[in-house]
Amino acid sequence: MRKEEILNSLDIKSFYDTELSSLKTNSTGWAQALCPFHEDTKPSFSVNLHTGRFRCFGCDNRGSVFDFYMERNSVDFPEAKRALAELAGVSTKPERREMETYDYTDETGDLIFQTVRYKPKDFRQRRPDGNSGWAYNLTGVRKVPYNLSDVLKSETVIIVEGEKDADNLGRLGFTATCCPMGAGKWKPEYNEHFRDRDVMIIPDNDEPGMKHSREVANSLKGIARTIKILDLEGLAEKEDITDWIERRYEEGKDDSEVRDELLSLIEDTSEWEAEERKIIVPTLSFPSEVMTGIAGDFATLYSQYLESPPEFFFFSFLTCLGSYLSDRLTTNLEIHPQPRLFTILVGESADDRKSTAATKTIEFFKDTLIEGFEVCYGVGSAEGLQERLLKASPSKLLLFFDEFKSFVDKCSIKGSTLLPCVNTLFELNRYESQTKHSSVKLDNSYLSILAATTKATFDSMWSSTFTNIGFNNRLFLVSGTGKRKYAMPQQIPEAQKKGIKQSLLEIISQITPSLSMEITRPARDTFEEWYLNLDQSIHTKRIDTMALRLLPLLAVNEKKTHIDRDVIEKTVVISNWQLEVRKELDPIDADTAVAKMEQKIRRLLVNRGPMSVRDLRRYSNADKTGMWVFKNALKNLEDQNLVFCDRQTGEYTFLP
User: Of 154, 249, 376, 556, which sits with the fewest C-beta atoms within 10 Å of its C-beta?
Assistant: First the structure.
């Protein structure tokens, strides 16, 4: 990666346009702007738009585009070179070469898709595109285990972590397989292929490998005839069966001797027995590694002094920031996504301090931003919302609800147009409804929502009026659990808040008057791969919309002026977590209390595995709906053979 290659690929004008809002170009190939390195009232900064070299005639700061980036972002040359290369779409990695392809076939041996191994080490999946080429995704493709046709012909099968391992075992005369995409990707639909077979699982020697082996064994329990897990001795961290085989070759052994040694180890291995499970049902774990930037600093600081979980503060901050910047920040895409969120903080109980996180974040923004940050603490009708939006200038508004059910109840009033109004304002900045008794017309209106509720209330407050128009999949749900820590919370030192306030003001000053963020080519490729492989279900609706709205938010949160791969990767992690939260909290739509309880029980057993009656009662909130409802729902499920109770352990299991 040479400097010349980066300069030849970098759109220099676009780069300086993004960095300097006051940039003015002329016909000579030069441009002038206010200097970012000193207090400048007259444009004294000049830049050559062909070479990228600049000079300020006020402070005499001068240099190349690399020097500009280093000075502007306080980074060293290697980091500036890497960042500009990514912005220019120049790969910072060694050239990738295709090393091996592994065919995944159906029962008759016909190709379905391939896994491709590259050097430097990387893997991608691809499928025939129907035009003698390849599509690098598995959209609409049936996923199967590796070497499926051989698996179906064999009584004994070895399951390993990768295709290379399976092929090496195959050369020794074993039938070996793996699942596509490696450890942690085993799917229940693979299980039936192993019915009444003797299965030996050989994991890689690391924690993900060990965890994968246990997950596969649990999944095949009651399906495979026998299950063994062979932990190979003498392997270093992250080594696998291929390393074990190669070490035998280095000792001078031939294929027959290596095979006999492995067979002996397999025979000496006892059958796997499932460990007695102790049900611990925590709230879905939030991927804390994404809590970076200013929002991360805010969440870390405030959660040290208050009892709300950090993720409540993190997303409250992003929601407030998105509301303030909703008419000024977007990405350079045809649809121009706005960073507005409808965020709902969902806790188990009042102990989770949901409202505390939201109100403290709003208080912080109002204290930092003297004007332009408008908050409405409740609205009862579309007409009332219209009046409040018209009072804001510009028409940007954050709707806050201490208990989100109050909003749902207002929307449920017969004849109210509040729900369709808010539903439409999620997608658009306009809404119109003309009736005999009321008139609502909104243009250029930017609405965000921040609200709080408990899981029990969230689960019980919905009706088909909301679910039928897709309102629920417009909500960004943040599930978290707080801890009792402080009987008398101490004040947060103002000096610690000051740095975060200053950073927030710096972010906003960068986006004057507006910013349309570029997305680097590597970042686009990463997002596209995630998008094309996203499973299609009721829970994934608008997940991609949420992701596109998060992109510019997460970028400015880290004071970036473009969206790079790091931002994309964090967005994907958050979006995947959001998908799991949706599965956990998806509103139940049923006609009777017993039917609702049946669906709750089924969902708990599917998502969490075997559970005792006590845990089912607790997490289905049975005490609130009544034990008669709970007992009848459980009996109905047993009568329909949808759940099974292990009389020895007392645990219920869902029967698919």
Answer: 249
Q: Write phi, then psi, for 644 (nearest 5 degrees).
A: -130, 135
338 in the same domain as 247: no
Domain-embedded: residue 522: no
Residue 494 CB partners (closer than 8 Å, separation 6+) = none
Strands 122-128 and 111-119 come out as: antiparallel
pLDDT attached to residue 280: 33
pLDDT value of residue 283? 43
What is the tens place of the pLDDT at every residue in 461-495?
Answer: 777 788 778 888 899 999 887 777 667 788 888 88
Residues 337 and 247 in one domain: no
Asked if the model's pLDDT at residue 274 lies above 80, the reply is no
Asked if residues 314 and 305 have their Cβ atoms less than 8 Å apart, the reply is no
Residue 241: other Cβ atoms inside 10 A? 25
Residue 238 falls inside a structural domain: yes
What's the average model confidence in pLDDT over 67-96?
Answer: 80
Q: What is the CATH number of the domain that holds 390?
A: 3.40.50
* In 412-542, alpha helices (H): 418-427, 455-460, 464-467, 494-510, 521-532
In a domain, 161, yes or no: yes
Residue 514 phi, psi dihedral angles, 5° rounding: -155, 170
Q: How many domains does the chain have?
A: 4
Rounded Cα distance, 6 and 52, in Å: 11
Residue 118 lies in a domain: no
For residue 113, list its beta bridge partners. 104
Q: How many CB atoms lie within 10 A of CB 76?
A: 8
Cα gap 439→461, rounded to integer Å: 28
**Residue range(s) defining the domain that contains residue 637:** 593-654
